[in-house]
Amino acid sequence: MPRLAPFGLGALIVALAYAASRSGLNGFYLHILFMIGVNYLAAAGLNVLVGYAGQKSLGHAGLFAVGAYAAALGGTEWGLNPWVALAFAGAMGGLFGLVIAAPAVRVAGPSLAMVTIGFGIVMEKIATEWTDVFKGQAGVYGITPPSLFGSSFASQDWVWFVALLGVLTHLMLRSLLAGRFGRAFLAVQLAEPAAASVGISVRAAKTLAFVISAVTCALAGALVAQENQYFNSDFISFNLSVFLLVVVIFGGSGHIYGPLLGAVTLTLIDAWLARWPALQHFAYGGLLLFALYAMPKGLAGALQGLTDRLGWTAKKPAEPILAATATPVARPEPFETGPLIETRGLVKRYGGVVPTDHVSLTVTAGRVHALIGPNGAGKTTLLNLLSGHVAPDEGTILFRGRDITRAPAHAVAALGIARTFQNLRLFADMSVIDNVLVGAHLHIKAGFFASLVGTPGQAQAEARARTEAMALLDSLDLGDHAESPAQSLPYGLQRRLEMARALASWPKLLLLDEPAAGLNPQETHELGAVIKRIQATGVTILLIEHHMDLVMEVSDHVIVLDYGAKIAEGTPAAIKRDPRVIAAYLGTEAAVPELAGAS
Ligand SMILES: Nc1ncnc2c1ncn2[C@@H]1O[C@H](COP(=O)(O)OP(=O)(O)OP(=O)(O)O)[C@@H](O)[C@H]1O
């Protein structure tokens, strides 16, 4: 039943828009209602890009222009039916979204802003200067609006139609963002290396977000061109890009209702300020600053905070949970034996520093291996090489006989190598269970269109994943914290949650980078038991650790690095007595207290 509520609300909004459009409102007010819908459409997609995937764009006026000109020229020059021209505009928006994403996903921060601004300027210049095609300031006239039952859309029809499109867009994005795609976008925003470590392609996720934002923005442009029956280059300006971004940020980026609140507020302010055009830009700048300083989560966040404080927030309906179908950390394949991962002559250089110096090693399936060595010996670098987060300069890495030397981190994860990070990389703002669900990203069988439409199959896959995530959390004694924000957990539990997230990807090899760092002796002892339990499920483990007691307790095999080179390997007992290891730790062959003390 709760799943049907948004549909009911959506139908009500369309009915209200229809009633308003037939209530005798004059053209000025009808146009404002229409522009609320248009700005909502553009902002809804942009919110996916900005609020979920964390990519700021200051060039979306260019995509608005793509849609407007596609609909305008498609209808007037190429003889497309207005409905087809509208669909064509959306498709062209998607295509140009790919174009802008190609350079944009390779950069971040100010460089990303420059790329998107550059795109907007190029589109503006093309529309202004290439007058043979785009007619410059003179513009394209006579754009035919769509018609229904033989009559062309009039001002009133645009109001309910844009409301209908807005509601459909909202419902689809709501479904998409509540599932694995929404979590993947957020994961990319919150911690890119961690997202890649569970098989999410950071570039693909950002590209998808660009394409979604481009399609809705292009549709918004197409609607304006068709409603106006005219479009010229004056519509496209840097100010429009800023306006759209302000709608998202002021409304509440990353909140599903943010674009709606932003579109309503900013469109009304825009209409009110139309009499004083010079004031408009100051007003947008002022609102943006106000939103950033006074309401960092925008109007939606401020309203949510208020309703929470007043106790008006409805309790979240329980997520559907299916009967557990599998033990949480059971692997889908039988236990393996023999070499799982092998490196041959692996080298990594950072200028004059060589943290990995011709390292050849073998990790045997089913065993716990420890990687030890003094600070700066190159342990984390080796782990980064194995997980694909860093590419080696020389040498090869074979995983189950397959060359993965140059494979990117998300592809390595997809093959069955998961990891944790020395400095925790949790998705701090997400709930504990959502962190684990991000870990299960690759195993949730729900495609893009199924997630957009919210098919029963997608709902089932989500429910199954949630059940398995819950079982996994329970098995690691984290079940009671499932709905808490990850950042609210005590440090020791955060470390355990990182392991749970990695395990949710069903790894064959689990790489743990100093899992006991920051833990107290009791927690360290419990960690030893957890590692053994994970091993018992058939997962091979390679752990970096400075706590020698833990290393000696859990490992079957120890590999020692010093100055990037492997200096020894063997059983824990043999390593404890190895003079090269003792010398590496103390610079002398005298007994190493931490090694000698470990039993
Ligand atoms: N991205 C990088 N750029 C330059 N130097 C780096 C980079 N990453 C690691 N190094 C250097 O490589 C060396 C090995 O670092 P690494 O973090 O792999 O060692 P470690 O054995 O994990 O150390 P610790 O036990 O202190 O975590 C250090 O001298 C470090 O400064």
UniProtKB/TrEMBL annotation:
Presence of the UniProt keyword Nucleotide-binding in the record: yes
Subcellular location: Cell membrane
Classification via Gene3D superfamilies: P-loop containing nucleotide triphosphate hydrolases
Entries under Pfam families matching the protein: ABC_tran, BCA_ABC_TP_C, BPD_transp_2
Keywords of this entry: ATP-binding, Cell membrane, Membrane, Nucleotide-binding, Transmembrane, Transmembrane helix, Transport
Residue intervals passing through the bilayer: 29-50, 57-74, 80-100, 107-127, 158-177, 208-225, 237-258, 278-295
GO BP terms, alphabetized: D-alanine transmembrane transport; L-alanine transport; L-isoleucine import across plasma membrane; L-valine import across plasma membrane
Domain ABC transporter: 341-588
GO molecular function terms noted in the UniProt entry: ATP binding; ATP hydrolysis activity; L-isoleucine transmembrane transporter activity; L-phenylalanine transmembrane transporter activity; L-valine transmembrane transporter activity
GO cellular component, one term: plasma membrane
Protein topology in the membrane: Multi-pass membrane protein
Protein name per Swiss-Prot or TrEMBL: Branched-chain amino acid ABC transporter ATP-binding protein/permease
Organism: Phreatobacter stygius
Lineage: Bacteria, Pseudomonadati, Pseudomonadota, Alphaproteobacteria, Hyphomicrobiales
